[in-house]
Amino acid sequence: MSKKRYLVTGALPYSNGRLHVGHIAGAYLPADIYVRFLRACGHDVLFICGSDDNGVAALKTAREENLPVEELTAKYNESQRRAFEGLGIHFDVYGGTHQPRYTSTHEQLSQDFFRKIHDQGLFVKKRTSQLYDEQAGQFLPDRFVKGHCHHCGSANAYGDQCESCGQAIDPLLLVNPISTLTGTRPQPRDTVHWYMQLGRLQGRLQQWLESKRNNWRTGVINFALGQIEVGLPERAMTRDLHWGVSVPLDDPDAAGKVLYVWFDAPIGYVSFTAQLLQDRGGSPVDYAHYWKDPDCRIVHFIGEDNTIFHAITWPAMLLATHDSDSIQGLKGEYQLPHEVVANNFLNIKFSGKEEEKISKSRGTAIWIEDYLQQFDPDPLRYYLTAIAPESARTAYDPDDFYHRNNSELLATLGNFYNRTLTFAARYLDNKVPEASQQQALEDQQLNHCRSAPQQIAAELERCRFKSALALVMELARSGNVYFDARQPWKSRKDNLVDCATTINICLQTCRTLTTLMTPFLPFSAEKCAQMLQLPADYSRWSSANDWLPPGHLLGVAEILYRKLEPPAET
Fold it and tell me: Do residues 76 and 62 lie in contact, with contact meaning Cβ atoms separated by under 8 Å?
């Protein structure tokens, strides 16, 4: 596999709350697995994320928590950072669009984007009506308005996007709109904003999307092309707010306005990259090596609710900065994403109840920081990958979480390592024995080990993480089947040569598994590497079939997983 350059991003979470299992399953865990795999293959990878601090979400929560918005966003930015680190999701940079270290670079690049698109003539200045809360004395940002979706009729749709049907919302078309500030019915009032003419980019977007039809997930490409078929509207890219990036125009009507949060948020991917490379001693323009070079593959990981922005709006913004009509910019121009990987929503299902949406207000969220106070990270990484909502919505079921930990992680993977390592320690001087008489069963197991890295890699390259993990577990199960078939507890008494061969094959299987599990279960893999006394580069994909030589001294065997029991009902 030739070495390539990648820039991988996780969708920027709003810095107005803690992270729950739905967030992790949707974008961040699959991104981390992908990045770990790419690095194991020797690729040059930057992993970029950070909090989305600007816009209405932060203002709304700051008002509810009675905190200055700067303090609120700093609080949740740090909370999110701790949660990610606790799960082993290690970004090269975790920035924040309004965090002090990143604000200057982010504002500069966001305003540069706006000016470039403005200079291309792709903005139109329009005087339009916007909902105004007379009691609060202010125009209402999209997220400060709720009502019935004018597309599907769903109740409690916010004024930017309907979470039920995924369509963008025109707040003025909401049925029975209500201000979330005062609970009163807002009234239309004239204001001026700059609208991006997405329709003028529609042909180039369609051509680009069609080129991705055989590579992207079906749900993403069909949704995006469906939007093209309907026709792309003009979209306001400015807002009447005080919190955000100021509109960089010498125009009296631009005073007191900021860039729409969904205009500046994806630029955070670029600004965090720029700041990271500067912090590493580079120049302010080094980010172009990743963002403006066709040889770099840019991969976005998102949840389904962000599909319209990452598959339509953001690519349109990137195209709008190009000086040519090409769909893929020349070197020196912003590159469009190589792939947009979107998972569906993860719901939740408690025992005896119907499946429902994860909700903070209803108390149905499993918060990551709370989880990490009770459990190790790998069981959750395993479960969320095993039930990943890659093509349809799935549900986190606490009872199923305990069951899979006990029946799969503990009874299959953990048991295979434990029985193999403890047997070698007890009866074979804690060393890798000689494999002398390999027969059909031995060849079958070793061939499984030899073929697994390529098979799993093929799934990971296509971002099929659930099936890739299933192949890892299939190898562990085959190891257990082989162990049981050869019965080394019997052969050690009357045929030590056969016994030694059996344990050798099992240890080689453990060696292969240790590399292959690393993207999914990094904490477990580190323990396994210590038990097998592997070199520091054990995660290197090409080392998966580096067999342990006879006489290799093993480490101390330890339990990989503990049995988990649901809390007693009170």
Answer: no
Residue 144 region, left (φ>0) first, then alpha (ψ -120 to 50), else beta?
Answer: alpha
pLDDT tens digits along 62-75 = 988 999 999 999 99
Amino acid of residue 404: R
Task: Give Cβ neighbours of residue 151 (< 8 Å, ≥ 6 apart).
Answer: 162, 165, 167, 169
Q: Token digits for 105?
A: 């670079």
List the domain range (segments joined by +) for residue 419. Answer: 411-543
**Domain ends where: 347, 368, 394?**
347
pLDDT of residue 244: 96
pTM listed for this prediction: 0.93
Structural domain includes residue 397: no
DSSP conformation class of 30 = H
Report the CATH number that the domain containing residue 424 is assigned in CATH: 1.10.730.10
Please choose, from the candidates 508, 501, 487, 502, the residue with its C-alpha nearest in 3D space to the C-alpha of residue 436.
501
Q: Tell me whether residue 101 is in a domain.
A: yes
Asked if residue 549 lies in contact with residue 382, where contact means CB atoms within 8 angstroms, the answer is no
Tally of domains in the chain:
2
Task: Give yes or no: residues 424 and 535 share one domain.
Answer: yes
pLDDT digits (tens, 9 = 90+) for 150-202: 999 999 898 888 878 878 888 999 999 999 888 999 999 999 999 999 999 99
pLDDT digits 0-9 by tens, 422-462: 999 999 999 999 998 789 999 999 999 999 999 999 999 99
Q: Rounded to the nearest 10 degrees, what angle do helices 465-486 and 415-427 cross at? A: 40
Residue 282's DSSP bridge partners are none
Domain presence at residue 318: yes
Q: What number of other Cβ atoms are within 10 A of residue 71's Cβ?
A: 11
For all residues of the chain together, what is the average pLDDT?
95
Do 385 and 37 form a contact (C-beta atoms < 8 A)?
Answer: no
How many Cβ atoms are within 10 Å of 390's Cβ, its own excluded? 20
- Asked whether residue 325 carries a pLDDT value surpassing 80, the answer given is no
Q: Indicate the helix (H) or strand (E) that contains 111.
A: helix 100-119
**In this structure, which amino acid lies at residue 167?**
Q
- Please check whether residue 358 is in contact with residue 365, taking contact to mean a CB–CB distance below 8 angstroms: yes
Map residue 146 onto helix, strand or coil: strand
CATH number, domain with residue 293: 3.40.50.620
Do 341 and 416 fall within a single domain?
no
What is the number of other CB atoms lying within 10 angstroms of the CB of residue 271? 26
Residue 153 lies in a domain: no
E strands in 363-452: 394-396
With beta carbons less than 8 A apart as the criterion, state whether 313 and 262 touch: yes
CA 496 to chain centre: 49
Q: Which residue has the tokens 């989880």?
A: 371
How far, in Å, are 54, 81, 112, 293, 475 from residue 93 at the CA level? 18, 10, 22, 20, 35
